[in-house]
Write a structure and sequence with these properties.
With 174 residues, this protein is mainly alpha-helical. Among the domains are: 26 residues, no CATH class; 70 residues, no CATH class. It contains eight helices and no strands. Helix 6 packs antiparallel against helix 8 and helix 7 runs parallel beside helix 8. The protein starts with a helix and ends with a helix. The relative contact order is 0.04. This is Glucosamine 6-phosphate synthetase. It comes from Candidatus Scalindua japonica.
Length: 174
């Protein structure tokens, strides 16, 4: 009976081996695994070579001295501002456009007091946004797409020249 038990154990072992054989990789899997192992070895060799490129103790010391020298040089620039400005020119930051705080009532009074021939040159001194706002205060229809010269022309003709002409005509008729 003892022999029968051994046969059953051997039989079970052989059947388990048979099941495991089907789990072994095929030719495609063997090639893929072999390629993956080759890729891993290549990456490890690259890492090994990169480790050799890291600075040794003497290079670390040289680098440390160079950094110290550079810091000393930059500190010495505090005593020589002209040299600092030459080496490191200051970069102007683009600032926000300043919002003009124009009192339009005062501007209108000022423009009304000017002679007709000076009116155009005085209007050209102002920014387009100011001219647009002035147009709206004078009830002149405009568009923000219009150029500064067109706005000046409209303000001159519709805002002041026509009004002065009407005033002259009304004084003559009286």
């Amino acid at each position: 009976m003892a022999r029968a038990k051994k046969k059953l154990n051997i039989h079970d072992a052989l059947s388990k081996i048979q099941e495991c054989i089907s789990l072994l990789p095929g030719e495609d899997d063997k090639q893929r695994i072999s390629k993956d192992i080759h890729d891993i070895i290549t990456e490890l060799n690259t890492l090994k070579n990169n480790i050799y490129l890291l600075p040794d103790e003497s290079e670390k010391h040289q680098l440390s001295q160079a950094v110290h020298t550079l810091i000393s040089f930059l500190d010495s620039l505090n005593d020589k501002p002209h040299l600092a400005d030459t080496i490191f020119p200051k970069v102007k930051k683009a600032g926000k456009a300043k919002i003009s705080t124009v009192n339009f009532d005062d501007l209108r009074k000022h423009l009304e007091e000017l002679p007709t021939d000076q009116l155009m040159s005085e209007l050209s001194k102002h920014k387009k946004n100011t001219l647009l706002e002035l147009c709206s205060k004078l009830n002149i229809t405009t568009s923000s797409r219009q150029t500064k010269d067109i706005l000046i022309d409209k303000i001159f003709k519709l805002g002041f020249a026509n009004r002065r002409g009407y005033d002259l005509l009304s004084n003559r008729q009286s």
